[in-house]
Amino acid sequence: MSSGTLYDKVWDLHRVAELPGGSTQLFIGLHLIHEVTSPQAFAALKEKNLSVRCPNRTVATVDHIVPTISQQRPFADPLAEEMLQTLEKNCLSNGINLYGIGSGKQGVVHVMAPELGLTQPGMTVACGDSHTSTHGAFGAIAFGIGTSQVRDVLASQSLAMNKLKVRRLWFEGNLSQGVYAKDLILHVIRKLGVKGGVGYAYEFAGPAIEALSMEERMTICNMAIEGGARCGYMNPDKNTFDYLKGKEHSPKGLHWGKAIKWWTSLSSDSSAIFDDEIRFDATEIAPTVTWGITPGQGIAINECIPIPKSLEYNESVLAEEACTYMDLKPGTPISGIPIDVCFIGSCTNGRLSDLKAAAQIAQGRKVAKGIKAFVVPGSEQVAKAAKKRRFRFNFYFCRF
Amino acid sequence: MKESSFPAGIIEKVKGVGLVLKGNDIDTDRIIPARFLKCVNFDALGEQVFADDRNELKGSHPFDKLSNKDASILIVNDNFGCGSSREHAPQALMRWGIRGIIGQSFAEIFFGNCLALGIPCTTTSEENIKEIQDIVNQNQQCHCEIDLKYKKFIGGLKSWPIEIDNGPLEMLLTGQWDATSQLISQKIALKKIIKTLPYLNGFEAK
Ligand code: SF4
Question: Nearest CA to CA, how far is A126 from chain B (Å)?
Fold first, then answer.
């Protein structure tokens, strides 16, 4: 059993009670809600005649249903409009802060919460969305939950949970030029499989991780769930504190110094015991592309689509299915496969640094004929910052 | 919709009118067709239960029969609730008025989803189910009862033994099936955490 890890320390601090069924009741420090998984939870609360236990630890935004073309209310899609109205009503009647469209702070929940300094080291974070693992980048224990658990957190600010095992993924060396956080996590998923992390929390550590910016760290934790780990995290360090400094909800004044002291004490001890450890050489990670139908079907940019027969039985069946579905010939080099659509965005890669990297590549070039290219900033703040830095202008000239 | 309140607290017995729904492998997509999943609350689900099957039978489906209007105990056959794990299926049944189910066997996830709503799914042998279904169909208003404590099903003047795993049984008999109430009941421990967690208290060491 693990001990002395950040996961263990945060777990112990938030433990409310041991429940009869054998699980632990865990206090949730930050509950993020949005329009898709919260309406039924609020309705259930009402039916049981319950109220929201900690409205000030609950924060709402609208993300999934925001229309791309026109955000004029009422939305063209009546269902989307109804979902947003329900969220607005629920937040208003329960005293919950809602960062709505046009507030300048709205965005994909996993982009906007860190931007506002809501996510902090040592917190437990829950949200009705599987990519909640993103927030672990700050040294928080963050996990996605289902609608009935959203109801439980609303009602009690806590959850019945079973403690996970902790696996440390250690990355020696540094990522090479042109290799990004997304490549790192795709490499991990390729090596350990999409179910490799089931039952584990992943601690990402080592020189290669310490060198990463917060945005890159978020990309990695975001996809921990794609590798089967319900949560992934990194120990908080100077990068974390620099990112948080001055953010809207970050500690201010005298509290700031005290916060850093406490946050620092949460890192996994040098004598910490992990249930498992896997070491990677970061210098060996190449730009990685997924070619198939699961995030585990990734290969380096200089490799070829695998020949199903050369793989283990389970993988070979899946590879064959993927080749048929993707219309790919086994053995073809991935780098020669034409691109149809380019999408830059989402909760994995919709942050300013992603847009910056893309804009640098796009600079002075044009999107080739026949290719559809989209850039979707992850939040209103990202959009504003990108505009200020004229990225938008860039993309416009590149015919995005 | 019926005015019966939703399950709460300790559940030892479910009493009421029985409703016979014959057929093996009735899946969750039949219980509530996928197109009803896009909804902001579960309220309307009760009316949509078995929507497609009922449409096809134009009024003669067991859920449409007038004599079954007030039924609260569902009597099914084998592997009921198989297919997709959607929580909406037991929600739809509960909102229609079902409070307890007896059958030959249940899909595991469906069983768990029902338990989380306080709806016991109990089992008995194939012959017993047949007999129960016949008796209830012959006398549609006969008194039915799922007695969890004494593990028996009563239909009219007869009774049959029923099965339910000890874990879930314990949860129903003690009220622990209701996860939310369990969590809420830890008031003092929760307050203590709120008072001591550094990030909720100006990062003062406590
Ligand atoms: S992948 Fe991320 S951005 Fe896309 S819908 Fe899910 S949470 Fe939102």
Answer: 16
Higher-confidence residue of A21 and A257: namely A257
B180: its two tokens: 């939310």
Give A47's contacts in chain B (Cβ within 8 Å).
6
- Contacts of B74 by beta carbon, 8 Å cutoff, 6+ apart: B18, B19, B21, B93, B98, B100, B101, B102, B103
Q: A86 touching B, CB under 8 A?
A: yes
The answer to whether residue B193 sits within a structural domain is no
DSSP codes joined into one string, A246-269: T-TTS--THHHHHHHHHHHHHSPP
pLDDT digits (tens, 9 = 90+) for A23-56: 899 999 999 999 988 998 999 899 888 999 999 9
**Closest CA to ligand 1's atom 5:** A64
Residue A389 CB coordination number (10 Å): 14
- Report which of A32, A51, A38, A176 is spatially closest to residue A111, judged by C-alpha positions: A32
- Backbone torsions φ then ψ of B183, nearest 5 degrees: -70, -40
Distance A343 CA to ligand 1 centre (A): 13
Closest-CA residue of chain A to B9? A48
Interface test with B, best of A9, A11, A12, A16 (most B CBs within 10 A): A16
Q: Is-same-fold flag (A6-283; A340-400)? A: yes
- What is the value of ipTM here, to two decimals? 0.90
Residues of B in contact with A14 (CB under 8 A): 193, 197
Angle at B68 between CA B62 and CA B69, to 5 degrees: 115
What number does CATH give the domain A6-283?
Answer: 3.30.499.10
User: Which superfamily is assigned to A340-400 in CATH?
Assistant: Aconitase, domain 3 (3.30.499.10)
Contact B91, A44 (CB under 8 A): no
CA atoms within 13 A on the CB side of A75: 16
Helix (H, G, I), strand (E, B) or coil at A312: coil
Q: Under an 8 A CB cutoff, do A17 and B189 touch?
A: yes
More confident residue, A64 or B1: A64
| Structural domain harbouring B53 | 13-176
Helix axes B88-96, B108-115, angle to 10 degrees: 50
> What is the 3-state composition of chain A as percent helix, strand, coil, each rounded to the nearest 5?
40, 20, 40
Task: Output the average pLDDT for chain A.
Answer: 94
Residues A148 and B87 sit within 8 Å (Cβ to Cβ): yes
